[in-house]
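Worked example 3. Consider a protein that binds zinc ion.
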Amino acid sequence: MTAAEVSPPPEAALRTVAALVDSGVCEGTPELMADLMSDLRPLPRSITGDGVRATLRRIAREVPLALHEVPSGTRVLDWTVPAEWNLRDAYVADATGRRVVDVRASALHLVSYSVPVRATMSLEQLRPHLHTLPEHPDWVPYRTTYYAPDWGFCLTQRTLDALEREDAGPYEVVVDTTLEPGSLTFGELVLPGTSSEEVLVSTHVCHPEMANDNLTGIAVATALASLLAGIEHHHTYRFVFVPGTIGSLTWLAAREDALASIRHGLVLTGLGGPGPLVWKRTLPGDRPVDVAGAHVVGRRGGEVRGYSPWGYDERQYNSPGFGLPVGRLTRTPHGEYPEYHTSADDLALVTPPALVEALTAVLEVLDVLESDRTLVNLSPQGEPQLGRRGLYPTVGGRSADEWVMAMLWCLALGDGRHTVLDAAERAGLPFATVRRAAEALAERRLLSLPG
Ligand code: ZN
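Given these inputs, the predicted complex is written out as structure tokens:
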């Protein structure tokens, strides 16, 4: 009997997180993520407005996401929901009427949240409002001015050099935006489990165009929600798709009464770009989601980092007034790869295998949260005879050795104080392998697996 035959997945068990991990990411899921990212890329996202609404509506075609609107001016914790911003058009045209910078080519050309402007000015007058990346002369930077009324354009250094050479001014400057009372939009999806204990999954939805930051977080969170919607799970999963910072603050303020049920949380972003996976710990650093995250990311050759009050929305969730144990999964984090917050963070930076590995890693973290159990050896005096019970593989090899070691570690640590994850860590094996071994031992009544 081989290891695989020892514990065949029963039909009913195919509808669990564990079964998803054991069977690998489902057919169709990589396509779902790719289609979603290419559909979402052109939408003019910001922290409020129709771009973020259209983004959430597109996600809602995959999963039953509810859109919530919070009016401008609403006090949210120490902040206020800003005026709603929408972009109609924006450009700089030279004296011949040619658009030398044009948001129709890329939304990144306008500083997000720019106030309306209609003016004619010289290049010298315009110059303080132009942003470039001299060290990457073909890239357009991404800039925002959410909380200071200002305006500006982002362009390549090469375009600016040409403008300075030709100086075909005066230039017509048009920023046709609206900043009016409206609302901030966030998306939320709750997938009830058999328990009311919740796992929070949060991703931001406010960046225009850029792929790794932030279409990959949206894609992985949506694919995950779609998978979890079709299976049974212990935890209740709460997905939030929020504009960065102000969106998570608004959501926290709106859901203050519901937060007590949250046991674990993950912020997902930057999952398809370069580098290995990186787990950023919660503020306490030792919560169950940290142990699970560190195990999964460590086994995949990734990096585990301590908490820092800088980054994405984990800053809001971990703040002392909420203290939600929310870690973060990325690849190379924000600011540490050259394409970050530039036009070079495009779909070519994102690879399908990187995205699939990230989704698989998230499922593995959830598998630990869903399936970790205490080990109690029911035959603790000496080793039980595994061969007699059909538990020894008859075919040798590395996986057979791993299977035996997984069983022996479950029995060795079966003192009622250790868990399956402890055995996986001590054995240096993936959690899922040890989980299957523990289940096989439990089926033969050699182990009990209380909660
Ligand atoms: Zn960003």
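Take a moment to read the result before moving on. Confidence is low (pLDDT under 50) at residues 1-13. The two ends are 29 Å apart (CA to CA).
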